[in-house]
Amino acid sequence: MAYTQLTTSPATVQFARSMGATGLHIGILGALPMGLVCMQLLSAVAVQRLARRKPLWLCISIVQRMIFLPAALGPWLFPQVDDTLWIWTLIVLTALNHAMLHFGTPLWLSWMGDYLPHQGLNRFWGLRHSSQQWTAALALLANALFFFRSGVDVRGAFAAIITLGAILGVSDILLFLRVDEPPMRHAAESRLWDVLAGPFRKKDFRGFILYSCFWNLAAMVGAPFISMYLLEHVGMDLFHVHLMWTISWVGGAVLSNRLGQLAERFGQRPVLVLCTAFKSINMIGLLVCPPDPTIAFWVLSPVFMIDAFLNAGIAIANNGFMIKNSPRENRTMFIAAGTGFAGILGGAASILAGAAIAASADWSWTFGSTRFVNFHLLFAISMVLRLASAVLATQVREPSSTGARVVASELLLATRLRVHRLHLVFVRRDDVAEPVGPPYIPFEPARSQPPAEQFSRRSA
Question: How would residue 446 be classed by pLDDT, with cut points 50, 70 and 90?
């Protein structure tokens, strides 16, 4: 996670802009992480002929963690070379980075799917995401410190950031040398077409693929341009952009472990429905926030904290659903299908949105005292599409799960109890009247079973 944050932080956007990158270039950079998810499909086909996944994953991942070094060090060491060349070098190496990353993702997830026990799997993902997000927050904080003072050489700072990211990234991969790999199980005499079509023949998984595709399309219309909007239109400096993203990761780190417990207890579907339903919050925040750097920082920081929490919930539910609803013999293809087609749509949406940003650079519309620009139009479209994807999330089938209202009730009750306990901390014991009759716990349900389980197990 440290490698990912150091190599895809807002510093990358600012580095590209310092060399003359336009909205189209930023759109392409934003599209590549999702557009090249199609490499997972190639990986899923290749794994059918492999006896082991671990050696190939280790080799690809080590090269991938060092791929950015030429693009980061080149402009700093050879400033006389035309900047256009370095922009396209960055784009090409970003493409190679994500191609290798996505080729290795199904290998790693299917490996973990065989290695980890399915009982308590969502708790594991929740704990893992919590640890990852604390790491991301620390990485972005370190990143922000590079730009604490104004006038910092962006090229020199970016070279140092990428070098640090490469060292941490390779160290992370080497930790997996001691993790065992269970023997792979292949389907007996399976045809290639049967392997490819397997995820679509399973009705429950087909609904998940449809949701995943539409959700990534909705998200990638606006998400890749948030940092560019803050830097270019709002006028926020790079230090505060990094600091705001650091704060956002803290929100996800604090609560993602709880989301993993809820997904394990009630199922992946209700967590997916609830988190997707509120994912338009960051687009709404960007639309209503005035273009003032100070106000934007204090308004958007808590909004982005909630957004990171929702992102963690979607990631935990996605991973749990794909692993638990895929057969071991064809798990790699199921995982690739669950993310690959969605990535293709998301990447295409990002490129088209970037082209629209570049083509409408001078467009604006004033309503009252508020001036709207092309970024606002993209954020509004993304907001509407995200709300529509929440409806599709309700169509994901998971018969063993409860309804989303059950999980919402559980979260609401937990929040009320925390607020009450916090209130008691600030109330002196002498000021609290002695209770009359038998003691009770505030908000205690009438029955002994957990309140959320008093509801019937039904769909939201």
Answer: very low
**Does a structural domain hold residue 187?**
no
Q: Output the domain CATH number for residue 66.
A: 1.20.1250.20
Question: Which phi and psi angles does 354 have, rounded to 5°?
Answer: -65, -40
Give domain status of residue 421, yes or no.
no
The answer to whether position 210 is within a domain reads yes
Task: Give the domain extent around 279.
Answer: 2-182+194-401
pLDDT digits (tens, 9 = 90+) for 302-352: 999 889 888 888 888 888 888 787 777 777 778 777 777 787 888 788 888
Query: What is the b/e burial string over 375-405, where b = at least 16 CB atoms within 10 angstroms of the residue's CB?
Result: bbbbbbbbbebbbebbebbbebebeebbbbb
More confident residue, 158 or 452: 158
Residue 450 located in a structural domain:
no
% of the chain residues with pLDDT over 70: 84
| Structural domain count of the chain | 1
Do residues 354 and 224 touch, judged by C-beta distance below 8 A?
yes
The band of 450, judged by pLDDT with boundaries at 50, 70 and 90, is very low
The whole-angstrom separation of Cα 295 and Cα 104 is 41
CA distances in angstroms from 232 to 18, 22, 307, 379, listed in the order given: 12, 11, 22, 15
pTM confidence score: 0.69
